[in-house]
Amino acid sequence: MSLIVQKFGGSSVRDARRIQNVAGIIAETYLEGNDVIVVLSAQGDTTDDLIAKAEEINRHPSKREMDMLLATGEQISVALCAMALEAMGLPCVSLAAWQVGIQSTGVHSDARIKKIDSERVRSELDQHRIVIVTGFQGVDRSGDVTTLGRGGSDTSAVALAAAFHADLCQIYTDVDGVYTTDPRIVPEARKLEEITYDEMLELASQGAQVLHNRSVELAKKFRVKLEVLSSLERKPGTKVKEVTKVEKTNIAGVAKDTSIARVALIGLQHNPGVAFQVFDLLGKNNINVDIILQSIGREDTKDISFTIHRKDREEAESLLNEHKDVLKFDHIESDDQIGKVSIVGVGLMSNCGVAAKMFEALYEAGINIQMINTSEIRVSVLLDEEDVNRAVKAIHSKFFDE
Ligand code: ADP
Ligand code: ASP
Ligand code: MG
């Protein structure tokens, strides 16, 4: 007998028929003699609809109340799924994160799971019940509901798999695995049989929303056996693991991210401590910075450009403006019509021609690069947003068609 965690995303539980389909998969796993913990997302576009509802009432609601609202979506799914299993005569219980004891930090809309209490879930499993848990949410020290960031249900699933030493964590979604790029943009994309944790983490962090990046981080840390597969077709998915065969293409895939903005501080003083002051201020306000570029400006000044999540742009600009006296910059320039395209692969480490091949593809497509950033296994370029899909296609075809 094994313990299996099965997570189903929004499209997999979109309506009554899809919930019944999901209940069928869960029932099969349970009736094979396994313990099953299920994690569900909100149905279809529920989370987006809830955000739109909030905007009708208040353009700038507090993050606490926003979390209180968004967490309701997942609660609907788990109760409905439990009802579907009940109708099949199977013992089950649905639980919200606060009932399980999924303890998180108090950073509303971007909370991190700190610890999961085992008592309640363990006792339900001991009574042979299927346990159905709300994804995407936690509870902080004061007992307030938090959410884990968009796409965070994957992270709830992996965290539960780690906490209960599950034998397998299956992420069921609307594609049948991880592809070399988003198959909705490039229909020629190829399905990967397996991918390393490191490559998957980079792809997810660079915008491949098939897995939430923190779920991959946790899976790597706690060695969770992870598999991405389709809830609609019964076929093998993609295994995410420590080591895989390196393909001769050198890269595992191409990712894009159009949820970013670029902010530039122009005319900063060319003194020690300036970068520290800027990024310390942003960090203390939970604004994550990605690519940073410093360049020499006019008359012994410097400019610092950086990218952040688009949703943080207004807040970052007003914070920086509030501290203009201390930071002593001339002005801020910002742009949210940008996007980032990345190639990822462990093969990049040993092959120096890979980055050039990516740049060649962009040159041939006549696409201009604004910034470049690399890690050991990734090269990212910042582009105009309107060039992003074309860039993904050109780069993908350069690496996988030739
Ligand atoms: P869920 O609702 O099940 O969590 P998501 O929409 O979050 O599903 O993630 C699945 C989607 O991720 C796919 O429909 C696909 O468009 C997108 N995607 C982006 N990059 C990739 C990739 N490399 N491989 C597979 N899917 C990808
Ligand atoms: N429902 C949340 C979202 O839409 C969490 C998730 O689906 O993983 O972002
Ligand atoms: Mg998702």
Main traits of this protein?
13 helices; alpha/beta; binds adenosine-5'-diphosphate; 402 residues; Carbamate kinase; binds aspartic acid; four-stranded antiparallel sheet; binds magnesium ion; eight-stranded mixed sheet
The rounded distance between the terminal residues' Cα atoms is 46 Å
CATH topology (fold) name of the domain at 3-174: Carbamate kinase
Contiguous uncertain segments of 5+ residues: none
Number of strands: 20
Counted by DSSP, the helix tally is 13
Mean pLDDT: 95
Portion in beta strands: 25-35%
Q: What is the CA-atom radius of gyration, in angstroms?
A: 22 Å
Molecules bound to protein: adenosine-5'-diphosphate, aspartic acid, magnesium ion
CATH architecture of the domain at 3-174: 3-Layer(aba) Sandwich
Into which percent range does the helicity of residues fall?
A: 25-40%
Instruction: Label the structural class.
Output: alpha/beta
Shape: globular
Q: Give the strand order, joined by hyphens, for the main sheet.
A: 3-6-2-1-9-11-12-10
CATH top-level class of the domain at 3-174: Alpha Beta
Give an account of the 3D structure.
Helix content is 36%, strand content 27%. The strands form five sheets. An eight-stranded mixed sheet has the order 3-6-2-1-9-11-12-10, sandwiched between helices. A four-stranded antiparallel sheet has the order 13-18-20-19, with helices on both faces. The chain is globular. The termini are far apart. The chain has 402 residues and is an alpha/beta fold. It has a domain at 3-174: Carbamate kinase, CATH 3.40.1160.10. It contains 13 helices and 20 strands. Strand 1, helix 1 and strand 2 (35-40) form a beta-alpha-beta unit. The structure holds adenosine-5'-diphosphate (ADP), aspartic acid and magnesium ion. Adenosine-5'-diphosphate binds next to loops. The site of adenosine-5'-diphosphate (ADP) has 19 residues, from loops.
